[in-house]
Design goal:
By secondary structure, this protein is an alpha/beta fold. The chain folds into two domains: 4-173, Rossmann fold (3-Layer(aba) Sandwich); 177-368, Dehydroquinate synthase-like, alpha domain (Up-down Bundle). The chain has 16 helices and ten strands. Strands 3-10-7-6-4-5 form a six-stranded parallel β-sheet, with helices on both faces. Helix 10 packs across helix 11. The structure holds zinc ion (ZN) (2 copies). The site of one zinc ion has 7 residues, from helix 11.
Length: 372
């Protein structure tokens, strides 16, 4: 998977040119047709044994949860099943409580299930294996969990990446196309997030890891290839999502993949009565922020493939929303997100912190990109 060229080996530490020693906690990635059938091999390879908990939701238990439990039980592994309703901190605590006498935790699902199980496993210090059923964002192997806190708001909790991830191509090919399109939106965000990170390095002396940045950028290029080839090579897309998550996990921060475009999306999540999918919001915001960067960041990319119109063409090609109307978010919320969104994270310096945008400019930006 050409990670070696970055000096990265799964399950090992390495001395990086940024001056830090990075630990790659994830030890195993299995990607194949019917990969779920090989769960026992993965457990054995990780030297795990004992009883397991399988965490899923109403939908994913039918897609793969029941099948996985069957395989485990047929091989005399005692299994507890936990089907979650909502990714709340209360649910995380309930899952964690049902993990007493559990040696292995396995999450089968999209972001909500994986994040709930990831945080619960971290709290109980139980080895955690993820089986993603969708590829709608790049947080699958990240070391954070996005969970609804007591106040009813999404909060990012630091935890640990999975010990192993199983990409079952048969399952992943059957996910709705909308999920893949959203995943592409999240992946294309690097055009702006990496430039925001560079700005923070150059103007605020923020920590910067060239290895994580290069890895992250590589996945951007891979995803444009994926889209240009018709969006059908799910194996390649899975690996890109994985490597993208690794770029965050290795430095213990979402910094490489989350800049001004993500702050806009977070603001929409909080303020809209009708938020769209994370990757859809992020993708559309990336079009806006790439045009904004090109006007106010003298170190903006020169290459065609990182310009706003190219990003827009990519999103169009994969059928992700590129207009306010299609996104379905209220126009005033989107404008406020551009004007106010950066205040959500005063310490995550971006182009919007460097040069805040006013309402009139925000409307012009929306019009000039054809989003409005
Ligand atoms: Zn994201
Ligand atoms: Zn580094």
């Amino acid at each position: 998977m050409n990670l070696e060229s970055f000096g990265i080996r799964l399950g090992e530490r390495f001395q990086c040119e940024c001056g830090k020693t990075h630990e790659i906690y994830i030890k195993k990635v299995l990607l194949s047709e019917n990969a779920v059938n090989y769960i026992l091999d993965v457990i054995e390879e990780l030297n795990l044994s004992g009883s397991a908990i399988v965490v899923d939701d109403e939908i994913t238990r039918k897609i793969a949860g029941i099948h996985l439990i069957e395989i485990l039980r047929q091989n005399n592994i005692p299994v507890t099943e936990y089907t979650i309703l909502k990714p709340t901190i209360e649910e995380v605590n309930r899952v964690a409580r049902s993990m007493s006498n559990i040696d292995i935790s396995i999450a089968v699902g999209g972001g909500s299930v994986i994040d709930t199980c990831k945080l619960a496993s971290y709290k109980r210090n139980i080895p955690f294996i993820s089986v993603p059923t969708t590829l709608s964002h790049d947080g699958i192997v990240s070391a954070t969990a996005s969970i609804i806190n007591e106040a009813g708001q999404k909060e990012t909790y630091p935890c640990r990446s999975p010990l192993a991830t199983i990409f079952d191509l048969k399952i992943l090919r059957s996910q709705p196309k909308r999920m893949i399109a959203a995943g592409c939106g999240d992946m294309l965000a690097k055009a702006t997030s990496l430039k925001d990170w560079e700005l923070a390095r150059d103007e605020k002396n923020e920590y910067y890891c060239p290895t994580a940045a290069r890895l992250s950028l590589m996945t951007y290029d891979e995803v444009t290839k994926f889209i240009n080839e018709g969006g059908i090579d799910i194996a390649a897309f899975s690996m890109s999502i994985f490597k993208s998550g690794l770029a965050m996990a290795m430095i213990g921060s979402s910094r490489p993949n989350s800049g001004s475009e993500h702050l806009i999306s977070h603001y929409i999540d909080i303020s809209s009565r009708n938020p769209a999918m994370h990757g859809e919001q992020v993708g559309l915001a990336t079009i806006l922020m790439s045009m904004y960067h090109s006007e106010y960041n003298k170190n903006w990319w020169l290459d065609e493939k990182y310009q706003w119109y190219y990003i827009k063409s990519m999103l169009k090609k994969i059928n992700a929303p590129v207009t306010v109307e299609r996104l379905g978010v209220e126009l005033d919320v989107l404008i406020d997100a551009l004007v106010e969104g950066y205040k959500l994270r005063p310490n995550r310096y971006t182009i919007l912190h460097k040069r805040p945008i006013n309402k009139e400019e925000a409307v012009s930006l929306l019009k000039n990109t054809g989003i409005l």
